[in-house]
Fold these 3 entries.
Entry 1:
Amino acid sequence: MNRAASASYIQVRGITIKNLTRWPLNVVNSSMVYISDCNMLSSGNANQFAAGSSHCWASRCTIANIPDYGLALYGGVTDSGITSCTANSCAPGFGVLNDAGQPAVCSNVVIANCVSTNSQNNQPNFIVATNEGGDGNNSQVTVSNNVSVSGSGGGFDLSGLESGSIVGNMSHNDSTFGFDMGDTSQDFMFSSNIAQGTTYGVTGGSNNSCMFIGNFVPGSNYDTSGANCIINDFNLGL
């Protein structure tokens, strides 16, 4: 396991980490950590920036065969992100989350230009979630220009989002849904997203406040009856 705790100004580049029983990469309570061009393969637990880490970035990494998050921003992470990475056969591929183990909300974080395929264990390929015991929805989250393919539990689970933007993403042949908003996500922009080959383009929505502009999401099952949403005329499927 490669672990950084309470550390600053670390760069990891161009290495392969595989066949570990726990975390290939575990960065906790650290800042200014940069991970690039690494392979993280066939290990037991998630790669993660966690426990209040800040200004930490992963770019151009390849992640595969991890029965947990391929790479997660977990528990109070701020000003950090995941860009131009790929994940295959993880559960899920990429995510932003908090829960009882690390309840603090993540804020000002990014997942962009990533590809996740073949998520396992009925998990979607991408998640922004507040799980049981978390202090609230994650805020100022940008999920942009990502591609989800053949997620066993869907494409993008966005049920733990409080402000942010979901822009330019594609869901292709994901099980059940392309994009799931849950019932508590609030104050976000959902624009220029595409869902193809899913049962529902977008699901959830009974308590959301959001703006939908220019999406192609046919077959949606999106409930706007209790939502404070602006749905632009240029959407197909809503």
Entry 2:
Amino acid sequence: MLKTRNILAGLGVIAVLGASMVPMGAYAETEATTKVRVGIETAASISVDRDMVNTDIFAGSDVNSQMVANVRVSTNVDGYQLTMMGADGNTNLTIKDTNISIPTDIPAKGKSAWAYSIDGNVKQIPSQPTVIKTYDTKTSGDITSITFPVSVESKQAPGTYEGAVVFTVTASN
């Protein structure tokens, strides 16, 4: 019986030692999964190379096309639309605190008018957002040069006439 007890004790020691030599991972294995998702938002930026374009003109002179603004657009998607409108829907150049104005129209000698032009295509200043350029690819700085021609008739009142336009860029989706 002593011999049997010694054999059983020896087997117990071997069983304990054997269990400690087997890695714990062999007994229990668990895992967890996490999805990783990154959303990249559509982005478009716009800037204008100057906050004001200005010129001096004599009443009754020919059309002056010296006022130019360069609008720079960058996008991370294929394409954008550039829109423009008179600020607050106002399309006139006006002497501050008066109703004396130069209306939007196609400028010509002997006529009071102002407009915008892209690539020589002269148009009236829109009172609502109007697409003035569509671009079909990604860009890191597409530049659109916009000229603001003006003319004044000989009896136009002297003064400083001001107005504003708003440019907006919308990235294609």
Entry 3:
Amino acid sequence: MTCKLHQLTPPVAVAALLLAFAAGSAQAQGSGGLAGDLSYTRGNGSGGYGSHRLEANFEPAALPLSLGFNANQSLVNSVEVSTQVGASLGWRVSPIWSFAANLSTTNDDLLNVNERGLSFAWNLHKLWQGRRTTRLEVGRDVSDYSLQKGTQNLSGRIPQQRRTRLDVRQGVSGAVDVYVALETYDYSQDPIDLARALLSRKGRRVAAAGMLGDLSDRSQTIGLNWSLADAWSLDVSTGLSNTVMGQNQRQKTVALNYLFHPRSSVSLIWSDNSSDALASPNVVAVSPAQSDSSVELGLRWLF
């Protein structure tokens, strides 16, 4: 079975969407009522991997609210393998703290996943009038899994996934921030059967692990963001995750951003993903070691 949105966002369609968004937002900006950003990212990687991502964020000037939309499409050899659409609503309660709610739906040839979540963020440095950023964010997300029709039968053994995350960002100078992200997962029932189904499906990619890949048990990421100059910034991060099957997965990312216009920027992102080999207790190979990489080119417009 293939996804319903096959080749939904070729470059021409994406350009048309961006122009439509830009026209509407420019008109709103002219009346002084709306600010935000639009971005489009195109990715390519090993094994014939490709992706499209479209994001839009809006902030009404008269309200302490923000509204975000995103759509993602992943392809292998120009054939769609997964899609994701989502929306978020944020409220800046005060300069010190805010919260946000998010909804998303993701599907591939095996699964549909519906997710909802809440997060709270605090700009702690404002409590002591600090010059360096100290930001704390906590969140809780719940994902409901369901199998696509015609796929394997797990006899109702489909768990609900619950994720708790903690993000901390600390400025160490006027140009450098460091950040740490921790995530833990729990499940409404034993997730091993679903995890095995994910391991055995065709066309599995390490890069998909963050969305519809292997079921995680915990993960941790550490990174650094460096403002190299007025127009240039660099973000470097490394992460390690452990699945419910006991497999280790690693990710390294380097992102370079250039503000070539006061309201426009371009970004280049390189990612490398790898996973250890996984064997059963009787030393039978369940999943071989895997490694892949991808490069993404993104454009962002501020209004």
